[in-house]
Amino acid sequence: MEENLKRVREEIEKSREHSVTGEEVKLIAVTKTHGVDAIEEAIKLGVTDIGENKVQELTEKMDIIGDKVRYHMIGNLQSNKVKYIYRDVALIHSLDRLSLAKEIEKRAEQTDHIVPCLVQVNIGDEASKGGLAYDGVLPFLESILDYEHIKVEGLMAIAPNVEDEAYLRKLFRKMFALKEDIERRRYEGVHMNHLSMGMSNDFTIAIEEGANMVRVGSRIFGKRHY
């Protein structure tokens, strides 16, 4: 793992040299299906943020590991599971529908919490993936502007799993353009601090095209254990 992390960090820094922004890049180590021991080792090696896809797995790991690391909910979030995590995660990456926003707002209002979220965009128009259609992002943002307990911090996308680099760059550029457009509109309470895109197979390209947050799992921990 130490060697894997070193290589990933080197690739991140090398990609930053060719980035359209040159920004610092936050590494989210994706720990789904990997056990607590592996996460503890990663923390010792300097990992500060981990990402989980499933609420049950996330809460089980939170209970054991505690506040040694920041937790990110990166998978599809069902509304009935919001109550288990909204107070404890650093960021929900997968806000993608009004019903979910309403549930987060309702729960957070009850306990006076502010919940940082990224709006997920289905950049490849894939039926198998969550996320808003590209053209639906602005109307969605405008529909939740009065939700005082949701703090929109940026955008997230999962690119299609393809090897066509030109196509991937096109999609990542489209995401970066959307982020820039939203920033120019200066919506009250909406910030574009994070552009979360890029995973083990495409994070270097994503960084070059403007990502400042990447979600890397198998390149750090090896193949998943099912």
Automatic annotation (TrEMBL):
Ranges for domain Alanine racemase N-terminal: 4-223
Pfam families linked: Ala_racemase_N (PF01168)
Cofactor or coenzyme needed: pyridoxal 5'-phosphate
Coiled coil: none
SUPFAM superfamilies membership: PLP-binding barrel
One annotated GO molecular function: pyridoxal phosphate binding
UniProt keyword Cell cycle present: no
Modified residues (N6-(pyridoxal phosphate)lysine): 32
Superkingdom per UniProt: Bacteria
Key word Ion transport present: no
Keyword annotations of the record: Pyridoxal phosphate
InterPro entries referenced in this protein's UniProt entry, alphabetically: Ala_racemase_N, PLP-binding_barrel, PyrdxlP_homeostasis
The family this protein is said to belong to: Belongs to the pyridoxal phosphate-binding protein YggS/PROSC family.
Role this protein plays: Pyridoxal 5'-phosphate (PLP)-binding protein, which is involved in PLP homeostasis.
Family matches, as NCBIfam families: YggS family pyridoxal phosphate-dependent enzyme (TIGR00044)
Protein name (Swiss-Prot/TrEMBL): Pyridoxal phosphate homeostasis protein
